[in-house]
């Protein structure tokens, strides 16, 4: 059942190109238009939306954080992202013009379910992004966009995360399409890139041996830090979460711009820091800032592990280890940049003798508070 792999997690990492392609299947038309009629939310309602609120837990929350950048950029609708466990005990301001997106692989996470009930009581439209047909969260939502990752067995989420990202991009692009924002000039080219992204994920998977080797060499460390900016920041958080749950190591993700506000004090000789570098093309100011951050931490002794776009020469002098990923539009980069972090965490867990598919103290689906 593990299809020749030692762990479900390895199998699920390998299935990602297909999972991504399956989640796109039938949802992009020949002209590049999004065909999400399956949502059955009337265009009138989508046109009226004046606020998007995303609620989720764990890895699904990280997908939501990335979605915020895409939604606000492509649709100009303000978007908030909140941990479902915080949202449900707050007094959030919602009404009939609010679109609440609940992201959940299992569709059974208690906090996310309670958050969506809370949202519906206040008249918001709730859209579920879910991987499990007929589960409670989509059943209780107004609309659902299923991810087609197939069953995810390993406790650590991998393919579900990538497909949640795809679903979030589809929703963001669709909202842009329905509302006519930035359509032809910006959205259409991105749709074309998104349609091909499964192949890029496949290419990343083919180059993972050095990442595994690096992970094994770090098995004796007790801390790994992760830095990112823009959509690279949630990727850093996700890389750190994977490492905590699988390798039981102290792992933390930071927004690179926060370094000087505290975290840089953690940098000492030999501490491994994974840095997610945005594309040098397009909004290159982000890239340049990240390169200076790498220089800063390296000058203080950090062992720099740099994830950057193929052809990015500027990072080479400062990378103790360089992991290259294919060029993508900035907003789509998480789909390729997360994969090495999954492989890294899985290999580190194995090297430390941990149980990969069933980490201690964790359950696949958290149906209690
Ligand atoms: O089933 P859900 O997507 O609602 O689950 C949310 C989290 O419990 C889940 O993503 C968790 O953080 C994973 N173990 C992370 O790998």
TrEMBL record:
Recorded catalytic activity of this chain's protein: D-fructose 6-phosphate + L-glutamine = D-glucosamine 6-phosphate + L-glutamate
Gene Ontology MF annotations: glutamine-fructose-6-phosphate transaminase (isomerizing) activity
EC number(s) given by UniProt: 2.6.1.16
SIS domain residues: 42-181, 214-359
Protein's cellular compartments: Cytoplasm
Active site: 364 (for fru-6p isomerization activity)
Major localization listed first in the record, in broad terms: cytoplasm
Highest taxon of source: Bacteria
Keywords from the named record: Aminotransferase, Cytoplasm, Glutamine amidotransferase, Repeat, Transferase
Class of the enzyme per the UniProt entry, highest EC level: transferase
Quaternary structure and partners: Homodimer.
Function noted in UniProt: Catalyzes the first step in hexosamine metabolism, converting fructose-6P into glucosamine-6P using glutamine as a nitrogen source.
Protein name: Glutamine--fructose-6-phosphate aminotransferase [isomerizing]
Organism whose genome encodes this protein: Streptomyces kunmingensis
Full-protein residues shown: 249 to 617 of 617
């Amino acid at each position: 059942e593990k299809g020749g792999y030692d762990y479900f997690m390895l199998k699920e990492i390998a299935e990602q190109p297909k999972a991504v392609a399956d989640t796109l299947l039938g949802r992009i038309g020949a002209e590049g238009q999004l065909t999400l009629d399956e949502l059955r939310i009337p265009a009138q309602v989508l046109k009226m939306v004046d606020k998007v609120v995303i609620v989720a837990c764990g890895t699904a929350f990280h997908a939501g954080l990335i979605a915020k950048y895409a939604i606000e950029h492509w649709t100009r609708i303000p978007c908030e992202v909140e941990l479902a466990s915080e949202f449900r005990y707050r007094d959030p301001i919602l009404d009939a013009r609010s679109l609440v997106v609940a992201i959940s692989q299992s569709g059974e996470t208690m906090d996310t379910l309670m958050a969506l009930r809370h949202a519906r009581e206040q008249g918001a439209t709730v859209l579920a992004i879910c991987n499990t047909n007929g589960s409670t969260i989509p059943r209780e939502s107004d609309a659902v966009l299923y991810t087609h990752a197939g069953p995810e067995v390993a406790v650590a989420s991998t393919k579900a995360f990538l497909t949640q990202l795809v679903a979030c991009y589809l929703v963001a692009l669709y909202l842009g399409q329905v509302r006519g924002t930035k359509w032809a000039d910006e959205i259409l080219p991105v749709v074309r890139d998104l349609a091909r992204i499964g192949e890029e994920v496949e290419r990343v998977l083919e180059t993972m041996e050095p990442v595994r080797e690096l992970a094994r060499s770090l098995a004796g460390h007790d801390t790994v830090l992760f830095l990112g900016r823009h959509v690279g920041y949630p990727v850093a958080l996700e890389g750190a979460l994977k490492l905590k749950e699988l390798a039981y190591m102290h792992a933390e993700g930071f927004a690179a711009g926060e370094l000087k506000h505290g975290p840089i004090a953690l940098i000492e000789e030999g501490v491994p820091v994974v840095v997610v570098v945005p594309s040098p093309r397009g909004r290159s100011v982000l890239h340049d800032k990240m390169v200076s951050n790498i220089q800063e931490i390296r000058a203080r002794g950090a062992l720099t592990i740099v994830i950057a776009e193929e052809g990015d020469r500027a990072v080479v002098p400062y990378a103790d280890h360089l992991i290259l990923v294919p060029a993508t539009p900035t907003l789509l980069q998480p789909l390729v940049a997360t994969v090495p972090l999954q492989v890294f965490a899985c290999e580190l867990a194995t090297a430390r003798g941990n149980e990969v598919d069933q980490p201690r103290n964790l359950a696949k689906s958290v149906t209690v508070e």
